[in-house]
Design brief:
Layout (H helix, E strand, L loop, with lengths): L6 E7 L3 H16 L5 E8 L3 H11 L3 E3 L2 H6 L5 E4 L6 H10 L3 E4 L7 H16 L4 E3 L7 H11 L6 E9 L16 H4 L3 H17 L3 E9 L4 E3 L2 H4 L9 E3 L5 E8 L4 E7 L8 E8 L2 E6 L5 E6 L10 E4 L20 H18 L7 H20 L3 E2 L3
The protein binds alpha-L-sorbopyranose.
Alpha-L-sorbopyranose binds next to helix 8.
């Protein structure tokens, strides 16, 4: 294919949901985009020898390993892609950066602000030597979100007044849905707040180009015990009747005030019956409004306030034109993109930034700032008051 280009040899840690999404991205990016480096899917790493070998075969990695330390130390690896639960992000990412590997790390950046601070410091240090780090807030790279950001930056909706964001899922409505690592505070850090709330915090801040200054919010856990899943506990199938505690939030709601003075209203839940992956964002400005729902991800709604009221209204822009962000590499107008394309665009932008010697976005510093917002929401819920976002 692109043998004249320098290689970017990738080692990926973890191979479940995110590992599959990232594998698809590494494989596809150089086939649809003209990249300055040629990604090589060198090694995938996991704890179980047989399962990780099978994953390598299935997902297209040249080899497999059961030691992330070994992968990080390998001379012939240029980038470490961290697709593990949050409790291992800091250790793996920092070791990789110190070994001179570029890092792509899944979100949320870490499980605590302290870990995120250490990661951001390691990334800053590494950047001095040209080593890059990026956190995987992949929804930034949905074309409709890219278009919304461009329109806001161009002033098309004027001054911002309201930011409204919801991340709605329903995979925990059934009280018999099993405990997964995502429901264990030690592994996941928090529940809906960090897993999906983090996305809308990042997305909205990215869209308006501003940060949240203070928050007040609350957290709820509706189902406090669930059956232990055989696969995640290592117990036999008979363990189906055993139950374990849910140690994270099922849902959160919070208000925010941005540095620029405007208001934010946020909701993140795994109990919105009927909503599967509904990331809804509406931004109201003095000259217009924009609205997005990931369940209709190729569409951006735009109300242009300069049109006379008798003819105005929200119109649906189908974000599949060649001059929409990232779209020209894909299909003709109207043919649509999906969830996986965000991951491909992430790999494209990261690879280009590495080759250009530039800082990719979102950086670990951006990931740390989101972590601070999450921590402020938790503190607010605990103390029942407004909390400033530290930093
Ligand atoms: C589960 O809630 C999950 O897979 C999240 O972990 C992702 O970040 C989100 O994009 C989709 O839902």
């Amino acid at each position: 294919m692109t043998h004249h280009k320098p290689a970017l040899r990738v080692g990926m840690i973890g191979y479940a949901f995110m590992g599959a999404a990232h594998s698809q991205a590494w494989r596809t990016a150089p086939r649809f985009f003209d990249l300055p480096l040629d990604p090589v899917m060198s090694v995938v790493c996991g704890r179980d020898t047989d399962r990780v070998a099978a994953a390598a075969e299935q997902l297209g990695w040249a080899s497999s390993s059961t030691s992330w330390e070994e992968v990080v130390a390998r001379e012939d690896i240029d980038l470490v892609d961290v697709c593990t639960p949050g409790n291992t992000h800091a250790e793996i990412a920092i070791a990789a950066l110190r070994a001179g590997k570029h890092v792509l790390c899944e979100k949320p950046l870490a499980n605590t602000v302290e870990e995120a601070e250490e990661m951001a410091a390691a990334a800053e240090e590494a950047a001095r030597g040209g080593t890059r780090a990026m956190v995987g807030f992949t929804y930034r790279r949905v074309p409709a979100i890219g278009l919304a950001r461009r329109m806001i930056a161009e002033g098309r909706i004027g001054e911002i007044r309201h930011v409204r964001a919801q991340y709605l899922q329903d995979w925990l409505v059934d009280p018999e849905a099993p405990l997964s690592w995502r429901l264990d505070k030690k592994l996941a850090g928090s529940g809906a707040l960090g897993d999906i709330g983090a996305h809308v915090v990042d997305l909205t801040q990215h869209l308006v180009g501003d940060t949240i200054a203070e928050v007040t919010g609350t957290l709820s856990t509706f189902v406090t015990e669930r059956p232990i899943a055989a696969s995640s506990s290592g117990l036999s199938a008979s363990a189906g009747t055993e139950r374990g505690p849910v140690t994270v939030d099922d849902a959160t709601a919070f208000l925010a005030r941005f540095e620029g003075g405007y208001l934010g209203v946020y909701e993140a839940t795994r109990f919105a019956t009927g909503r599967k992956n509904s990331i809804r964002i509406e931004i109201n400005g003095t000259r217009g409004s924009l609205a997005f729902d990931f369940e209709d991800m190729n569409v951006l709604e735009f109300h242009d306030g300069s049109i006379p009221d008798c003819e105005a209204g929200f119109r649906r822009i189908i974000v599949t034109e060649a001059d929409h962000p990232w779209v020209s590499a894909w299909w003709p107008p109207g043919h649509g993109l999906g969830y996986e394309h965000g991951f491909t665009h992430q790999v494209v932008d990261l690879t280009r930034a590495i080759a250009a010697g530039e800082q990719p976005a979102p950086s670990f510093a951006d990931g740390l700032q989101v972590q601070r917002v999450l921590a402020a929401v938790e503190a607010s819920a605990e103390h029942r008051r407004w909390e400033a976002v530290a930093g």
